[in-house]
Design a protein that fits this description.
Low-confidence stretches: none
Largest sheet: 6 strands, mixed
Number of strands: 9
Number of domains: 2
Helix content: 40-55%
Mean pLDDT: 94
Strand order of the largest sheet: 1-2-3-4-6-9
Strand content: 5-15%
CATH superfamily of the largest domain: 2-enoyl-CoA Hydratase, Chain A, domain 1
CATH architecture of the largest domain: Alpha-Beta Complex
Order of helices and strands: EEHEHEEHEEHHEHEHHHH
CATH class of the largest domain: Alpha Beta
CATH topology of the largest domain: 2-enoyl-CoA Hydratase, Chain A, domain 1
Structural class: alpha/beta
Distance between the termini: 28 Å
């Protein structure tokens, strides 16, 4: 697929996806969502990237679903055919995902940003559950993710009031990993992506899945998942390299295998 609304670059084990509709503040529509799904599938299937970095072009990360051009008759169908598969694809990727929020992340754009494993935000950025402001309910996983990230009280207030949460407050709430100066967002997010791209990729994949499953299962079930995952991780080349490097008092050189 040729991309019209996103930019994709793969270098040094990092796949960088940039939402590239700056004139609309990177609003999401069927076309850009289809491109993102295709890009996620490429990252999953081509086995070139070992970390994924997502950001936005211009002065916004994403203003959410595009409202211009007419309203859909069935907003739920739009979720079923496009936005829900997008989130499921992102959450299931077998590599770590970093999001660099360079400006407003509203509505579905907020959900997309918070679905990453590590979220950095520019100091000028903010997060907004904008749905209630237009008479809709939160979607694209917001009602599942936000209470688990910031707790029920803050998630409910954020959704019911439809007010901006500045990046600094988002960091205080534990919604994101770090708030940084605007000029530092690019270098710091790239540094984290580089570190992860040089890490034990298969262990990262197991870790991502275990964390997701732990939110829905009992302690006993989590312990069994950990046992199974450790069996898989213990059979990787990276585990052997990690132990060898530790005993040899040198940095490990992981290959993602």
């Amino acid at each position: 697929m040729a991309y019209e609304h996103i930019l994709m670059q793969q270098e040094g084990g990092i796949a960088t996806l940039t939402l590239n509709r700056p004139a609309t503040l990177n609003a999401l529509n069927r076309s850009i969502v289809a491109e993102l799904i295709d890009a996620f599938d490429r990252v999953r299937d081509e086995h070139v990237a070992r970390a994924l970095l997502i950001t936005g072009a211009g002065r916004a990360f994403s203003s959410g679903a595009e409202l211009a051009g007419g309203l859909p008759q069935d907003c739920g169908a739009e979720l079923e055919t496009h936005y829900n598969p997008l989130l499921e694809r992102l959450m299931a990727l077998p590599l770590p995902v970093i999001c660099a929020v360079n400006g407003p992340a509203a509505g579905a754009g907020c959900s997309l940003a918070l679905a990453a494993d590590i979220v950095l935000a520019a100091r000028s950025a903010y997060f907004l559950q904008a749905f209630i402001n237009i008479g809709l309910v939160p979607d694209v996983g917001s009602t599942w993710m936000l209470p688990r990230i910031v707790g029920r009280a803050r998630a409910q207030a954020m959704m019911l009031l439809g007010e901006r949460v500045p990046a600094e407050r988002a960091e205080q709430w534990g919604m994101i990993y770090r708030c940084v100066d605007d000029a530092a967002l690019g270098p710091e997010s790239l540094a984290i992506a580089t570190k992860l791209a040089n890490g034990p990729t298969r262990a990262y994949a197991l870790l991502r899945q275990a964390l997701r499953e732990s939110l829905e299962c009992s302690l006993t079930e989590s312990l069994q998942i950990e046992r199974t995952n450790q069996w898989h991780a213990g059979r990787t080349q990276d585990f052997l390299e990690g132990v060898t490097a530790f005993l040899g008092k040198r940095p490990p050189s992981f290959q993602g295998k």
